[in-house]
Amino acid sequence: MPCPPWWHGKFRDCGCRMTIPRQAVIDVLTATSEHLSAEDIYFEVHKVYPAIGLTTVYRTLDLLAQMGMVFKFDFGDGRSRYELVEGTKKHHHHLVCTNCGRVIDYSDFIEEEVKLFNQVEKALSQKHNFEITAHQVQFLGRCNNCKGGNNR
Amino acid sequence: MPCPPWWHGKFRDCGCRMTIPRQAVIDVLTATSEHLSAEDIYFEVHKVYPAIGLTTVYRTLDLLAQMGMVFKFDFGDGRSRYELVEGTKKHHHHLVCTNCGRVIDYSDFIEEEVKLFNQVEKALSQKHNFEITAHQVQFLGRCNNCKGGNNR
DNA sequence: CTTCATGCAAACTGTTTGCAGAGAC
DNA sequence: GTCTCTGCAAACAGTTTGCATGAAG
Fold first, then answer.
1. What nucleotides of chain D have any atom within 7 angstroms of a protein Cβ?
2. Would you state the CATH architecture of domain B90-152?
């Protein structure tokens, strides 16, 4: 599944070129429903194009984030995670286990949450003269495996 | 302003000792309304107790986070920020400028947000058998200084 | 044929760890 | 006196940067 042609235009619009490495990264992001780290993505890309380096993956992810095409998350384990904005999964928020690092996506209540956020966004952007482009919500705690005592 | 005596008990309850370095870190966190990094805290602590090392600051912050006494945030600039849970500031969420890294606290709408989150927390913790201890909300975008074009 | 993108290696930076000595209780 | 905490130096891991080569348009 090659990445859709409209990406080509997206890149051109910001003076960037469409290249094999960039396509490869987009393909990997499109194909997954996980929260991949840069290294995860590098690993996948590497299977198909062994010549592509980790540095390029980082640069591509950075570019995509700048373009607003990917979200960059931090779940507290010391590495960033990336997720396509217009991915296959519907909009969701995260439950993060602070003990084992497991991340669960949830979409329940998303409508209520987003509805409230739209109001809040509008008010805050006026009050602080701030241009809001995204929000991040995560609940922290302990997953079913980690609830029973065993610390760290 | 020395740190309140009840901290002593908090530490004892988890088999930990109250020490000068720990007091110093708590004092700094208590005295500020900023989102300090480990290095910021080290710097402040160092003014009063030059012998205390950065390592100890990290270890203390980690301990306090484990104890649930401080929040640990990541605003995307590659360093963690720490904030007392029971600080002088009322509960708030964050607006983060993705261009310059500025962070604005807001408390407007907090009540509505928290009210909704309480419902969501209850439902999610049942559904996923997850023990939720905290939530993090941040709006991302561009602050008034960064809105006008000038990228990065 | 100009300009942007890439790969490699090396540098950086925030954070963690091992260990012997010091301190809390 | 025991057991935890501390400081130092060194290790670590993820990410970024400099630079010469290669590819896109």
1. 4-9, 13-18, 23-25
2. 2-Layer Sandwich (3.30)
